[in-house]
Amino acid sequence: MLEFDGTDWRMIPGQGAIYALEIDPATGTLYWGGAKGFGKVAITGNGVPTVQTLSDESVRDVYQASIIKGTAYFLNDEAVYQLNDSEVVSVIKSSNLTGSFTSLFELFERPYVSTDQSGVYRVDNGSLVNETLGLPEGSDVIFCARNGSNYLIGTSDNELFRSTDATSFNQVNLRDQQYAEASVVVSAVWVNAQLVALGTLRGGVVFINPNTGATNEIINYTTGLPDNEVYSISTDKNQNVWVAHDYGFTRIAPYFPFRSFSHYPGLQGNLLCAHSFKKNVYVGTSLGLFKLEKEADYEEIVYYVDVEVPIKETSKPLTVDVQPAPEQTKPEPEPEKKEKGLVPFSKKEP
Question: Which structural domain range is residue 53 located in?
Fold first, then answer.
């Protein structure tokens, strides 16, 4: 587990990979779920934080956690675990009816689980109660993000639904729904009431207005994010968005009044000047004038390259009998992914 105080990083040793972290807002206790069960971060007599396991040895691969009214809930494919005062008080196993558990989320101060075969259930006094939530039939809930009394639910169909009460959900019509479907939306955090950051598997982070569905900005590989696959996403008190990816962490400041266009493909030559005119961006370089244009192609491009493999020489002579051999099929070269830019620069011809 890594801890960051704004200046330095510190490693808190654990017993395996940690997949989920949740803080109890009432006590400040940090709970975790991981490859070897679940537990909390305790402070030793010397003031050193340490990872403490609260589950038994049979619990494995806990990938989600949620704190609701002082009660901690943990989820893996096989069970939901309820924890009160560092003691496991309830274990709800999956069944042939439910199939595997797929997600755990809080909705209006109640815990819910999404299942592989029979929809959404509410966790109530150590048992499961089937719920519909008013969502389209067959929709699997992937995540649920909260901002006060506002909830944003994401489904397996890459659709978003918003609710301010427990009786109805209204769909958020995304302006760039095609990009969302191509990128696969897997998580979301509220920056404020007018801005939500969506984490995706293939398209980086998409900032949207949850009231209108309009896209404010897309931060992906083309615009400076080291990788398009978002592992986890969170916000801080200063309305910054923290993104975990394959290369570490990136902090995004959506309200920082500066923008960088140097990551967009298409620019050639030395930059000499730039100007915005009628919502378009023009850049003058030593090789001509370029205009920033949108290219609505969101799919990844896979192409093949020839790879030469050196043959290791042997110091001893090798004698073999030469036999007729069937014709060999030339192996296909390894595929290499090429990131496709969303908004490239195009040169303006005189």
Answer: 2-252
For tokens 């080291």, the residue is 226
Helical H segments across the chain, by residue range: 177-183
Residue 289: name the closest of 207, 345, 223 by CA: 345
d(Cα 118, Cα 66) in Å, to the nearest integer?
Answer: 22
Taking only the tens place, the pLDDT of each residue in 74-126 is 999 999 999 998 899 999 999 999 999 999 999 999 999 999 999 999 999 89
Same domain, 159 and 291: no
DSSP helix/strand/coil, 221: helix
Q: Model confidence over 15-32: pLDDT tens digits?
A: 889 999 999 999 999 999
Secondary structure E strands in 85-204: 87-93, 101-107, 110-115, 120-124, 127-131, 141-147, 150-155, 160-163, 170-172, 185-192, 195-200
Total number of domains constituting the chain: 2
Helices then strands, each counted (H, E), the chain: 1, 31
